[in-house]
Amino acid sequence: MPEFAASRVFERVFVDGMALVEETAAYLDGPGRDMARTLPREAGLTYAAWSMELTSKLMQAASWLVMQKAVRDGDMPREDALANKYRISRDGPPLNVADQRGQGLPDTFLNLVENAENLFGRICRLDAAIYVDGHSGEASPVKRQIEELKAAAEDGAFDPLRIWGRAR
């Protein structure tokens, strides 16, 4: 985990994620609030529900990013970050922006929802990759297979079928 949080990839996700949080908050508190008053009933209900879900997902994503940064900067013990309460995952399907295009919701709002869904999904995948079985850095089955293949190649006893059979 510390290696990832110190990477350029993390820095890019952090900067992009926090910018999206700010952009979304500015929209929902400004033009989005004004526009929501003029929406037809069905679009207004969808807007209200999606706004809450959008806000919730972005707050979860921002909390995860800040937690990673805190560990990286030494402000939070690494062991604390392993706790299940800090894990992030998708409970249900993402909001389907494509189905809502042309149904009365403004494109600006739908673009924010789409960007937030992409960010949330990316962070869920990062969390799953970093915290396998609740342990940071524990090798996944794929990583273990790759390590076994490397070791076998170095020993000169490269037998991918033998390694593959043990992995199942």
From TrEMBL:
The record ties this protein, via Gene3D superfamilies, to:
Protein of unknown function DUF1465
Pfam families to which the protein is assigned, alphabetical: DUF1465 (PF07323)
Organism the protein comes from: Henriciella mobilis
Q: What domain of life? A: Bacteria
Its recorded name reads DUF1465 family protein
